[in-house]
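User: Hello, can you help with two protein structures?

Assistant: Certainly.
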Amino acid sequence: MEWFLLGCAVFFGLVSAYLAWQWMETRQQLRQCQAQHDELETIWHQFPELLVLIDSQGRIMRFSRPLLRPIAASQDEDSPLKQTALFQDYLPDDVQTEYRNVLRSVVEQRVPAALGINLSAPVCRLQLQMIPIADNHDAPVMVLVEDVTEAHRSEQQLINDKHRAERASVAKSRFLANMSHEIRTPMTGLLGMVSLMEQTELSEEQSNFLRVIQSSSEHLLSIVNDILDISKIEAGKLTLEEEAFDLARMIETLLDMVGSKAQEKKLVMQSFIDDDAPQLLVGDSIRLRQILMNFLTNAIKFTERGHVLLRVVVVRHLPSAVHLRFSVEDSGIGIRADRAMTLFDEYVLGHDQLSTAAGGTGLGLSICKRLAELMGGQVGVVSTPGIGSNFWFDITLSVATCDVPEPVEEQVAKGQTLWICDDLQVNRTLLISIARKLGMKTREFTSADDMLPVLIRESPSMIVISRNVWDGASDEFRNYVKHHPTRVAMSSPDVLTHDGEELLEQGIHAYWDWPISQHTLSDLLVRLLQQEPSSQHLVTRYSRAPAEPRVSMTARQPVPELAGARILLAEDNPVNQRVTSQMLSRLGCVVSTANNGQEAVSARQESDFDLVLMDCHMPVLDGLDASRAIRAWEAENAHTPVPIVALSADVMSDRKAECEEAGMDGYLSKPIRLNELKRELPNFVRMHTQ
């Protein structure tokens, strides 16, 4: 019995100890749970955004802080909220439907979702984040309500500002296009009259006045073009053409365009193209030429003596493409380093005083940079004050996939010997480069005295001597060359002003003036090799025609293809109509005029023409509608379509597309020049006669 009582006592003692330990453990867990609950409550109430717990029906279970009036009718958390739905009666029907659909998706799929809603009282924008608490469908949903009114208002402000900026850009482009038209229209009359007056009998003083008018007009036109280019680039409306072009021909055209300016300043102007540079490339040759033209004109403008060099260097060959560096080097005044860093920024001039004197807007180099970037390239400059500058342009161009025939002239010149006597290294370098391409052996001298002893012992196939060296040579050297059987060519920065008999008498068989392209010079050397040394024919560059003699304004200079061509000119501006009519008459055309588009349509219906020149902006009926009316009448009456060429002062790219859509066959930009009419119109007249 005693053992039994003792066992019971021990048992109850152990049970009591276990219960006491369990109670203490439970109490500890309750304390921890209370602490966690307090932490969660603190987070719940201190959370910066509003937290709302709702059931699967959307009814409010609890919230973290007093609700906004539009969110629920009650403001008291102790009130019976079970019957109050979130946003009840405060959302438009369509938004209420969207809210319920999103809530249903969260409840059924147990996947978080977001929704933005606008409230009108008060006006605010709320962003809702709905998060399911558990996986079962009856579990509540946590809704994070964030007031994004200010952020939304800022976003809308940015959108509105963007739209205003776009509208302003469009308005600016439209304004510049209209200004271009208004400026180019009178420029047609001005430059047209200048070109016609140049052909009249003028005194030297009158000729000088006329040249000033023409150069000033061209300068004004270049400023307008620069402003338009900047506008088109900023508006994203500048389109690049991808066409095959001949690299050497493009360089030759550039030299022809700026060569006379270099000759006026007695500058040596040359071009070098790497031997391994592809002949045919694919790209926008017009924009490429625009960049190089800007570099060249600036180099000539700021160089008083020395040279201007245009180089084309192959940086590396790529599959079906080539990376080229175009550079223009000069021996001008140079640019300080701090100026060079910002030279390609808009409205920045390299030399304030000199630029003011020479003329400049600070737009040219900025446009070059923009164009280079559009073509996937880049521009830069290396310059030293007092020594000169080197403006470069890197670009990758595709190589045209067409076969280039092997030049025949290489067979004629291969193995021949060329001696070069010139005191300028740049001239000797160019001649050596061309000679190597032709397969010729070369030897260079810097003076006639150095060459004479060697010439007495040896006889080359050809000698090229500069005018400067020749003028300073001894009588002994000149007499020896005169009676020597070898061919002799002379180079000079001056254009040949006489018939060349004097040179032939001195033993000179060929003559050219700098600058000259590699292609033209190569052809000239080959033609000289093909000619007998005893020939009395002076070989000169064939690409540069002598200046046309001045003739009377009333004298006709008909172009064979345009002789008797019937031209209808539709132009509302009286001055431009008169100038263009006189240009056409001088080319041998028979001109009829119309003052507006309706008159042009009537004239076409009454008479046959070989060509219609149609101004785009005219009263009563503009050029586009007039062209459509003419095409419709021709189709209805089975008449052969007459070529229609647009005359427009609007240089925006979409204008050409509009003219083509209206049925026009060509496009000429104002101001119209006589040489342009002479070059372009025969193609359209032939198209009609054929």
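That covers the first. Now for the second protein you mentioned:
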Amino acid sequence: MNHRAATRCNYRASMTDDPGHAVQMAVERAETSGRRYGVFSCGAGKFRVRRITGRPQSALEIIKPSWSYDANYRATLSDQVRTVASQMVSTIHRGMTR
């Protein structure tokens, strides 16, 4: 029997009736986005997957990605700031040497 075919799942709403499938969805989304995802109970035998921030008390499982979107974004941003700052310094220096 195909386990995935037997699982009732609404991918758009991130709800399923299989806890293992909910964890798998959270892992896939976390690795794709670089953000943390949680598995939550939402009624009798139903589970919901959604992105989380902070430390939610109601999460049954919290999935952390192997990489961080925020860290990558901050690194890229600081590189851009350094580039702009060095361009400004060189422009000022050129103006002073004329």
